[in-house]
Here is the input.
Amino acid sequence: MTSSPRPAPIAEVHGIDRARFDADVRASAQPVILRGLADDWPAVRAARRSDEALVTYLKTFSHAEPVGAIVGAPEIDGRFFYEPDLTALNFTRGRSQLDPFLDRLLRDRTAARPYAMAVQSIPAPDLLPGFVAEHPMALLDDSVVPRLWLGNAIRVATHYDLMENIAVVVAGRRRFTLFPPDQVANLYMGPYELTPAGTPVSMVDPDAPDLDRYPRFAEALAHASEATLEPGDALYIPFHWWHAVASLSPVNVLCNYWWNPAPQGLPNPYDALLLGLYALRTLPDDQRRAWQAMFDHLVFQSHGDPSEHLPPQVRGVLGQADRTGLERMRTTLLQSLGRA
Here is the structure.
């Protein structure tokens, strides 16, 4: 196994407000550490006192309804991933009341190889009613609902989200390793049909990459960046940036905010990608090149507006998307797929 380069550090900002976040951070389309963004959050202050203080504070919001949780055997060493043959995941899903889950986190802190445990991506109002009111996020609209992630020392495989993201470390330490979207060919994606959490993940372990098996990952590492966050720190992750997340402490809590500024009501681009895999990928080479040119011109507009030579009243699907056009398109697609 050959050696690999280390990712570069991520730029940091301190004391940021909404105007600067929109004008500088988001406009850069690069990941940025928002150091100390949530220093004044009550949960962060509790976590800095002790794990016990944090759990006591969280229990003031908890309820008796079971919530979704995942657990992996000690043998996975905290890495939620696949079984060796890739036909199953190496963890199981279940449900647990939150208070016993939190108690188990405290109890397992001294275990050499504990079970890997996590409560992942639960809307904060559902998991901890009242949490949002005491933990405001000044950088985003109130309509963006935060989600909570709790667990022990676990690792999440490199993946991407179809959203922009602010991830706030509430308790513990977390290491984020990020790759820009254009490194997709060097990340060796896993199966589309079976994924740990939705979108496909990279098959490469960024903490111990096997460059003999995955040689192009060295190029991905040359473009990677990395940050380790303490309680109160946050990280802005731009749309579709790949990221691996390692929770480094036996008690960890993360609060994240997903949002997508794209116009609402449009078809899902991910669905278009899946359809393209069947409709385009296996065509003869000359046909794929022809369709690539068509997509570059019409969809990605590599040469400017492809409809600028047409009067507005006849631009149709090349013009401004409206509700009538979208419904017509959906009807046509459903009819076409029904004949496939």
